[in-house]
């Protein structure tokens, strides 16, 4: 057998291939990749999140940056929650009072703010007598042990980047521990287990970008940094134009000669200008030499308001906060009140509450119940975030009246039982504001009621007929069975 010669490998140099998967007109130089100025546009890397000092300067010095960070955090926590089911009304009141005493909502609000400003933060559950480096053990919490939340931003903790959560669940792949740095306000050098933390991020990132940020997100300011610069630049530029709104000029004969010669002629010119500025006003006179000429020019600012509004709308869209909430101004247009914009915004806040806060609040409520009531929350216990869009007292009364009439009509018609009616009325209390004091004992007592008459009538004999006489003829004789005829 003859041995084949090895094939020679051919290396093809790598070249960049320009794609043409969009509209292009090379003759008119329209479109991307047609050698025009638009083709040179691209996006750069501006890691503002890593510059902590710059973020703090912007937060302190720019009211708009403060609004971008604070508004959503305050709206996510300002109305609190509505607890229901499994506990007595007085016990629910005790839990709400305990959360108020521990400044729970204030701490959670602070954690959301710093997560939006820095890109990440944690709110640590404080349980007296437990090692923070160990997993949280709610079943061991006794009366008075839960002390609320302790907020640490991303610069106060170091995540365990090499020790990640391996248990299947929502925390899979996240840091297992957080080491508190030496410059933190408290608990310096302590290690905290992830189960004791409510972890919050500003803007979520893809995996590889998340690695570059130590498994955190980025600040909400980073995405709208260029829009903020444009808005502030336009606002400052408009303010500078005010100084030029009324420009005045004086034509002086042989001005160059006077400036070149100097002496008494120049001194006289300077005195004349000072004299004009000293006595000229809206009511004063302007004294000039007979050969001098005076002129005034007025600047108009038409279009500046529209320009500022457009930049403001871009910031509003980037933050998903309507103009009426961000700037305190209603949108332009006939019959535009901003109500629909606010409703859409509140829906977004509701979604953020459910996705970012619910799990952490559920853990906190269980700890509060064990610490204040000395018992765990029952299985039927739950909570809802209180709606941000509040009804007026008149609207609540109308809704309560309509709901009550509908439930009572269904009960009287035999469609639902009294226990179901009580459940429906209590569930509607979050909207109507009434019937929230219906207890589980009252519902359990109502479930013992006998069923409506319509449900048992099929088991009763027809009126006027004795079952024992059903097989007798009118003379009292036993009726013989009818013969079966063969086909």
From TrEMBL:
Start and end residues of each Anti-CBASS protein Acb1-like N-terminal domain: 57-407
Tree of life domain: Bacteria
Any Pfam family hit: Phage_portal_3
Disordered: annotated span: 445-487
InterPro entries attached to this UniProt entry: Acb1-like_N, Phage-assoc_HI1409
Protein name in UniProt: Anti-CBASS protein Acb1-like N-terminal domain-containing protein
Species this chain originates from: Chelatococcus caeni
């Amino acid at each position: 057998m003859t041995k084949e010669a090895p094939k020679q490998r051919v290396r093809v140099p790598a070249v960049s291939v320009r794609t043409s998967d969009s509209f292009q007109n090379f003759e008119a130089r329209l479109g991307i990749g047609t050698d025009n100025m638009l083709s040179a546009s691209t996006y750069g890397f501006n890691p503002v999140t890593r510059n902590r000092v710059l973020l703090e300067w912007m937060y302190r010095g720019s009211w708009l940056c403060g609004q971008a960070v604070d508004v959503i955090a305050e709206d996510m926590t300002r109305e609190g929650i509505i607890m229901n089911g499994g506990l007595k009304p007085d016990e629910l009141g005790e839990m709400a009072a305990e959360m108020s005493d521990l400044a729970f909502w204030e701490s959670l609000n602070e954690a959301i703010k710093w997560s939006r400003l820095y890109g990440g933060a944690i709110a640590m559950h404080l349980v007296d007598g437990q090692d923070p480096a160990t997993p949280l053990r709610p079943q061991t919490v006794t009366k008075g042990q839960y002390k609320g939340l302790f907020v640490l931003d991303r610069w106060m903790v170091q995540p365990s980047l090499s020790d990640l959560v391996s248990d299947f669940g929502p925390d899979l792949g996240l840091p297992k521990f957080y080491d508190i740095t030496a410059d933190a306000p408290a608990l310096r050098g302590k290690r905290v287990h992830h189960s004791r933390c409510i972890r919050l991020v500003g803007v979520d990132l893809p995996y590889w970008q998340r690695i570059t940020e130590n498994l955190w997100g980025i600040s909400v300011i980073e995405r709208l940094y260029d829009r903020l610069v444009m808005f502030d630049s336009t606002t400052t530029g408009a303010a500078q134009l005010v100084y030029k709104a009324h420009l005045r000029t004086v034509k002086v004969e042989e001005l160059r000669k006077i400036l070149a010669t100097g002496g008494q002629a120049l001194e006289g010119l300077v005195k004349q200008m000072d004299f004009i500025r000293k006595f000229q006003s809206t009511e004063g006179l302007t004294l000039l030499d007979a050969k001098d000429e005076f002129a005034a020019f007025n600047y108009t600012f038409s279009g500046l308001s529209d320009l500022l509004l457009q930049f403001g709308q871009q910031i509003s869209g980037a933050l998903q906060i309507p103009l009426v909430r961000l700037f305190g101004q209603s949108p332009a247009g006939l019959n535009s009140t901003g109500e629909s914009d606010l409703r859409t915004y509140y829906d977004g806040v509701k979604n953020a509450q459910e996705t970012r806060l619910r799990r952490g609040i559920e853990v906190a409520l269980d700890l509060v119940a064990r610490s204040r009531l000395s018992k765990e929350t029952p299985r039927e216990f739950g909570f809802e975030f209180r709606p941000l869009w509040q009804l007026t007292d008149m609207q609540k009364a109308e809704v309560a009246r309509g709901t009550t009439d509908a439930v009572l009509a269904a009960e009287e018609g035999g469609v639902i039982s009294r226990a179901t009616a009580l459940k429906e009325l209590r569930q509607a209390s979050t909207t109507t504001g009434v019937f929230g004091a219906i207890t589980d004992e009252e519902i359990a007592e109502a479930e013992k009621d006998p069923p409506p008459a319509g449900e048992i009538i099929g088991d009763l004999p027809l009126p006027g007929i004795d079952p024992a006489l059903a097989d007798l003829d009118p003379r009292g004789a036993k009726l013989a069975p009818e013969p079966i005829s063969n086909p």
